[in-house]
Predict the structure.
Amino acid sequence: MHELLDVAAIPRRLLRREHLPYRRLRRPRRHQPHRHHRQADNHQPCFQIPHAACSTRGAHAKRENPGCRNPANPAYNRKMASRTVHTVCSHDCPDSCAVLVTIDETGRATRVEGDPAHPVTRGFLCGKVAKYLDRVYSPDRLLYPMRRRAGVPKGPLPQGAEAAAFERISWDEALDAVAVRLKQIAAKHGPESILPYSYAGTIGALGYGSMDRRFFHRLGASQLDRTICSTAGGDALVSVYGRKLGTDTEHFRHARTILAWGANVHGNNIHLWPFIEEARRNGARLIVIDPYQTRTARVADWHLAINPGTDVALALGMMHVILRDGLEDSDYIAQHTHGIAQLRERAAEYTPERVAAWTGIAAADIERLAREYATASPAVIRMNYGVQRAENGGAAARTIAMLPCLTGAWKHLGGGLQLSTSGGFAWDRVALERPDLMLSSPLGRHARIVNMSQLGHALNDLDQPRVHALFVYNSNPAAVAPNQNAVLRGMRRDDLFTIVHEQFFTDTADYADVLLPATTFLEHKDIQGAYGHYYAQLSSQAIEPLGESRSNVWLFTRLAERIGFTEPCFRDTVDDLIAQALRAGDAAQSELLAGITAESLEAAGGHQRLRFPVEENGKPFLIFAEGGFTTPSGKAEFYSETLAARGLDPLPGFVPPTESRNAAAPAYPLEFLPRKADNYMNSTFANLPGHRRMERAHNGLLEMHATDAAPRGIAEGDRVEVFNSRGAIRLTAHLNGSVRPGVLAASLDWNKLSPEGQNVNALTSERITDIGGGATFYSTLVDVRKA
């Protein structure tokens, strides 16, 4: 047998390359992508995961971990007692990945990896979450309650020096301080002067909304309309179908035509990609419709670079061609749709030539797209939420959602559309959130509703009563909310009491009066659905909370006790809440959740597919193949009486956004795309060195077309200022061809990590969408000049 070589005993001079008995090979990059091979038979690319997009490897918590890969260290060869825990990534992503966490004998997580048994996760994680232990064990974690020091003003703090502005306090002190101030504010200004602000920092059913909602409902606080991400698209989908369901991710492998409409699958939906590539190997074509050349667009068969905010027009142009040329499915339309006569009349107005002038896509390409979509069946559309972040975003999502109803794509395995599958997870939100508690509050009625997409207005202009307390959790509004200068002006108010429950010193934490440490998904238990597949999952607690970090459920349970709420629901445990979410043992449990309990999930390895009765007979679940719409008409609605009753157009129609090149009088000449970074999750992960390295190709850059740069005297690498009436930011010009003329793009980052201390939201507005009251990030006009 060969003995282990004791490297430490070899003289250093003999370790030079010329003395080694072999040539040293360069170590491959950890996230090196596969080469883009093509098969000889159909010239389609093999399954490919782009650089930094995913990993099957776990991430070590500390690179200096003693005993790691060191034969001289006895710990290396010692048999380590370890266990594996099933958790679920709770970050705001459609994939809701099943994550296996390896725990060593000390209780420390040493590895995270995708669960190979999960039919969608399939054993790999995205590049963001493959490095998740870098986040959990980051030296920058906020681990103890803290209070702002007397005399320290609210405002931006340098990264790494934030703690100097605060003093550590105990949880008892923190809870008492928060409870006392909230009671004082409610007594003086009314409970509606307290505003909770949260979103999808966790999408676990309990962490997203359970004990927190009960607390604020019983308190009488203002209700938050959580619109910032998806309400325009979600409400649009419901207006057509009646519920938020879509083509099964696993069925994409059967498609022949795949339209990724505003969907950067590589950047934020990577677990759909293997199914798309399987379809492409079998002859399918991938067509990307996006104003930006995303990772997905770069490897597509065809990229249509549409002008921002013109998706409604393109979809109507496709309808024009389909109906003109008799490519619609008349039988499906007759049986399962409502309003075809009115739609036919409306679509006749949208000739390819007219649509081309708005969209920037040639009329011939619109004709080709429509025919290919209607004839190369099965055809499926993966629409993502970027489409609905324009002022006409509701109409855009609604119009696109009608296309598979026009062609009968729902009848075919692999056909249809996916925006969200979340409607399959009918958690009992009434039981979790208890809105009835508002009637027991000092108000004795339902509290007012404040749109989170207009936080700047709420903090500065809202009255009767004015907002005097802001409670932030699951979100980083100082970085992600639109009209940033107005938001920060409001958050600087001396008379605003701000509580922030967080894992890190975010931009929002810089404005906190009280900081409370929050857990990651490894540190608490939850139940979770998905908006990109049909598997319910139990996320078990893998490790003890670091420091004194606490979950949302723990925090609001303790605050309810401090305030003096005596209702029994405030004594519910995590397990109680999970059972209530599932309506376990209740005859009214949703059919799709039938038989799913915490115990059955645990016995099944952490995940169970929703119950689709047709699958019990060995047939695939084709959602709307035979109708099944829950709209007022019981059919897919091209024409919506519900929208008409609200004073909205009951038919799809193109109305140019106020801030767009197609507006009557554009205030500025260039359209701006404030993009999400591929390697962050909104603002999450942006502070971690490893993730910043993955994103370094885009950090601090303004992507623009050479034809816009030349007349402004801007060259590659120049410092530039992007501005409009709301603000200005400074970036570095990058003329890389990723956008078409008239469009600029830059990525969201933390303010404190951005040039000049402001990010892209200094330029966005608080104007809201036509349907759903959502944010209009992608309806933003600007100009640019050399700095």
About this structure: DSSP finds 26 helices and 29 strands in the chain. The radius of gyration is 27 Å.
